[in-house]
Amino acid sequence: MGMDFEEEADEGVSLRRRLLRAFFKVCVFGAIVSGLAAAGVLAYYDRLADGFDIAEVGRTPTPSSVVDARGDLIGYIHTTNVGLPVKSSQMAEVLRQAIVAREDSRFYRHRGVDYRGVLRAWVRNAQAGRYAEGASTITMQLARMSFQLKGKTLHRKVLECRIARRIEREFSKDEILTFYMNRVFLGTGMKGVEQAAKGYFGKTAETVSPNEAAMIAGIIRAPNGFSPFRNEERALREMRMTIRRMRQLDMITSTESVAALASDPKIQPEELWRQWLRERTKQRRASYLLTAVELEMDKVLPSRRGSGGLIIHTSFDLALQDDVQSIATRELSSWEASTSESASLQCGIAVTEASTGAIRALIGGRDPSESSFNRATSIDRSIGSVVKPFVYVAALASGLLPGTHVSGSELSPEDIPWFEEQWSPVNSDNQYPELVPAIEGLTESKNTVAVRVGEAAGYGRVRGILDSLGFGASDASLKGRHPSLYLGAIGGNPLVTAAAYGSFLTDGERQEPYFIEKVVDADEVVLMARQNDPPAFQVLRAPETWMMRQSLLSVYRSQVESSGLSSPGDQYFGGKSGTTNDFRDAWFAGFSERLACAVWVGNDDGKSMIGPAFGGRLAFPIWFHTMTRASALGYVADPPQPPENSLPIKLCRESGNLATAACDAAGLSYIEMVPESLIPRELCRTKK
After folding, report:
1. Across 56-97, where does the E strand assignment appear?
2. Chain segment 174-192, per-residue pLDDT in tens
3. How far apart are CA 244 and CA 516, in angstroms?
4. How far is CA 71 from the centre of its chain?
5. How many domains does the chain contain in total?
6. % helix / strand / coil in the chain, to the nearest 5?
7. Closest CA to 112 of 59, 50, 58, 172
8. CA atoms within 13 A on the CB side of 246
9. Confidence label for 286 from pLDDT (cuts 50, 70 and 90)
10. With the C-alpha atoms ordered 548, 553, 558, 562, is the resulting torsion angle positive or negative?
């Protein structure tokens, strides 16, 4: 029996050993896997951290100047993060000590991340059952401020830690602390310790006393809540806590601590700070141009977001911009006065150089100080009849010439055989002629003619052209095929529309609109420059484009006559109006020999405008005065030339083919200047 017991005992020990070995192996394997996973995660975040321009940390935020194409100052951006940068030698030592004591007492002993502080914060937060204490070091805070890392997420925190490690490798502790003290927000619009010293005490950062230094340091954790302008009692409480902490760390003596606690700093009136700010700093005025530049800079140079110190050369013309803004305000106010329209109409206007895409003026609304929303670039409204020139130019490619007869009668189902629903658009004048020349249908904006012209071109061809021109990019109303496309039931904005009309001057090439020409830093290093010849893409063929351009010159002349405006005879202007259902949108788009311009007028909420708010009556006067003013400012050029081998050809209005004697006898012959590639190859065979 003893032998059996011993054998059983040995077997039990052996089993336990095997289990322990297996458990140990599992633990080792788990540790290895966890370690590899952790290493992989850190490697991933190190790659992300390497993507940031670490030199940005040392660039103290200053305003960026924005200048127009003539070199005139438009204004400043990057003003919200601007302080008064000072050198380390211009900061009182007691101020540097106060900030270290308050924000990161182990600053000089860690390498960007204080793991002891992380553990301490984790324990205290767990005990409190809430987020009661953070663990961000000064270096981590500097990383967050420099690269605008936002959100209380684990992703942001890990990325912040890895960037902090890079900062510590790149800069000395003294440099890091100086960068931080020049960037940190200290309440009431103050950036950096120099502004805080001036704003709160009327001093410099070099001359603050120990209790003043402690108050500045105490503000950091809740700048608006602890600002002495907002709550002096809280500011004093935080000051005393900072002084006691400095004493614990032996940064000041007991005597200095007692003296600092014995008196309260003298806070100057907030109005003195506001007055100083108004007099000394470069304030940003409300401007559609500056807002557009700031948004674009965030895209093209994201590493310089918020740091400023740049000179941004743009294509804008400030003189034209200001004139167009005044024109729009005047014309809309006049319309409102004459129609009893409430003063709520808005507008969007874009003026571009057709040959390059350079934006010369960009009006986002009536008053940028009331609304920063840029209607020239951000609306998505039905474009109405301004679409028709693109429908007609598509038909030109199918053989339809401007003088060819098209029916203007009411539509019947057989006119659109692929569309099964009952749909019959009306003409605005309620006139439905049996036959009209295509150009007349365009001039008089006959919807029934436009639909038939669109069908002659083919729905796919028309939609393809509009897509290539940028229309309908965010439009959801035409997911399926619908013939209302031929009448402008597709979304667009003034900038897209101006660029599209610019293609009529460039033989069908669409230039991508732009406004940033060049960006240089304070050392005149070019950070970004536009290519001399940016890529353009061919949307329309040159022969059809030229014929439509000539037609739009005629449409414009008819518009001038009906408007009663006085137009010089030598103006090379062409364009087309547009109006959407129930007068929700009024448009006019067109070109001069050099520029393209589009004007939209409407209500932001899409409600109907009062009166017969046709594009020709409401948007056209703004367009007319804008382009006339642009010509006066020197935006003139030689008119574009017709394609080579364009010939005067006798055509038949009925068939569109070469006219015969029978066509002459029937009064259907006419002469048209036609590019060689569009000249019909057949004689008219219609019996007259």
Report:
1. 64-67, 73-77
2. 999 999 999 999 998 898 9
3. 53
4. 23
5. 5
6. 50, 15, 40
7. 172
8. 31
9. confident
10. positive
Q: Is residue 688 included in any domain, yes or no?
A: no
The total number of residues written for the chain in this structure: 688
* CA atoms of 423 and 23, how far apart (whole Å): 78
Does residue 497 surpass a pLDDT of 90?
A: yes
The yes-or-no verdict on residue 562 having pLDDT over 50 is yes
Q: How many Å apart are CA 648 and CA 431, to the nearest integer?
A: 32
Query: Tokens 């951290």 identify what position?
Result: 49
Contact 499, 510 (CB under 8 A): yes
CB atoms within 10 A of CB 182: 24
Domain assignment present for 487? yes
β-pairing verdict for 311-314 and 64-67: parallel
Instruction: Return all residues near 427 (Cβ < 8 A) that are at least 6 apart.
Output: 408, 445, 446, 447, 448
What is the reported pTM? 0.77
Q: Are residues 149 and 268 in the same domain?
A: yes
Query: Please, how many CA atoms are within 13 Å of residue 675, restricted to the half-sphere of its CB?
Result: 21
CA distance 83 to 78: 11
Return the structure tokens found at 154.
């684990």
CB 58 within 8 A of CB 303: no
CATH of the domain at 320: 3.40.710.10
- Are 485 and 466 a contacting pair, CB within 8 Å? yes
The count of C-alpha atoms lying within 13 angstroms of the C-alpha of 146, restricted to the half-sphere facing its C-beta, is 28
Q: How far from chain centre, in Å, is Cα 618?
A: 27
Residue pLDDT, tens place only, 584-598: 999 999 999 999 999
Other C-beta atoms lying within 10 Å of the C-beta of residue 321: 22
Q: Hey, what are 549's tokens?
A: 């351009």
